[in-house]
Amino acid sequence: MTFPPDVLPLASISAMRPVFMIIMGVFLLLTVWRITRGTSGWAPRVLMAGAILLAFGYAVVMPLYQGGILIPVSPAGGALFEHTAADLGWHLVKMVSMNGGWLVFGLGLAMHAGLFETERSAAPIQVPVTSPSHEPVR
User: Fold this and answer.
1) Cβ(108)–Cβ(50) below 8 Å
2) DSSP-based three-state secondary structure for 83
3) 95 in any annotated domain
4) Is 127 helix (H, G, I), strand (E, B) or coil?
5) Mind listing the pLDDT tens digit for each residue in 40-75?
6) Pick from 71, 68, 57, 67: which is nearest to 24 by CA?
7) Closest CA to 57 of 104, 11, 6
8) What is the full DSSP assignment across 17-58?
9) 32 in a domain, yes or no?
10) From the CB of residue 128, how many other CB atoms can be counted at a distance below 10 Å?
11) Is residue 122 part of a domain?
């Protein structure tokens, strides 16, 4: 069975890729929400901000590119002046949401795991207290 070139069969990989990306973005957001629920501080905030950026990128922007609604901007496709401002704007949105999302998500994950915390000594530091004449104070 052959299809016209402009119609994709529903069971094809090209037709399922946007659906997979939407599900992946929503699942990532729900997973991070479950991890950070009940915690406080900057780590869950940063982690959730990265997850929101990634969910927007995966669930909204990338399916628009995969569906052919947005035209990808690439050096192989021609010079940048051949693209409209909307094409360049969506490309910027994609770059910020995906690259910034992974950067903020990774930083939040590292903060949540405690990688930036320093170890504290278990023994208290004893500082001798002396008077100016070097005699112990009683």
Assistant:
1) yes
2) coil
3) yes
4) coil
5) 899 999 999 999 999 999 999 998 888 878 887 776
6) 57
7) 104
8) HHHHHHHHHHHHHHHHHHHHTT--SHHHHHHHHHHHHHHHII
9) yes
10) 6
11) no
Which residues, 6+ apart, have CB-to-CB distance to 4 below 8 Å? none
Which residues, 6 or more positions from 100, have their beta carbon under 8 angstroms from its beta carbon?
Answer: 53
pLDDT in tens, 118-136: 777 667 777 766 666 666 6
**Are 98 and 57 a contacting pair, CB within 8 Å?**
yes
Write down the pTM of the prediction: 0.71
Letter for the amino acid at 100? G
What CA–CA distance (Å, rounded) separates 69 from 79? 20
Contact call for residues 103 and 50 (beta carbons, < 8 A): yes
- What is the per-residue DSSP string for 62-113? HHHHHTTSSPPP-GGG--GGGS-HHHHHHHHHHHIIIIIHHHHHHHHHHHHH
From the CA atom positions of the chain, what is the Rg in Å? 26
Q: Return d(Cα 61, Cα 70) in angstroms, integer.
A: 9
Looking at the domain assignment, is residue 118 inside a domain?
no
Structurally, the chain folds into a number of domains equal to 1
DSSP 60: I
Look up residue 20 and give its two tokens.
């997979």
